[in-house]
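TetR family transcriptional regulator
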Amino acid sequence: MQGQVSRARDRLLSTATGLFYAEGIHAVGVDRIIAEAQVTRATLYRHFPSKDDLIVAYLNQADDAIRTGVATARSKGTSPEETIRAVGESIADDIRRTGFRGCAFLNAAAEYPDPGHLVHQAVRKHRQWFLATMTALFTDTGKSDPGPAAQHFVMLRDGAMAAGCLSDPEPICETFGRGVEGLLSYRSHPADEG
């Protein structure tokens, strides 16, 4: 019985993930998710007490995938610079993916702008983690200004993700890669250059 419950939950989350990302969260109703996942309404609400809980699970799953990608890049034992490049390349690979529709978190934030809403809070939690992680990576490079460098990286990522779903992703990814290289080579104080 436990295996059936887990399969039903996984099917619900997988179905919702595909629909939310492809069509938008507000555009997809619970009835459609139930129909496409081939479960009952009771099964949906047993696993996810509300649509908001399902949306947060969708975002948490996206968060887990990104955390895993960063952990994989870090575990390779390369230099901090190479780890940052690997994170950047992972972002570029995502942008090049067929069906790419931008950042799931930015898309969700646009649909749920209220900072007090559960979905918006899930977005903020992920973004705070990502910024802290990039700050730690830039700190490991020995940069004198890791905080601003990390913020700049996140802004470059956000811009690349927005532009990457609007036009040919290749020049967007190339520009993003040059921006990452610029951040890695930039020193904010002349004393850093010696």
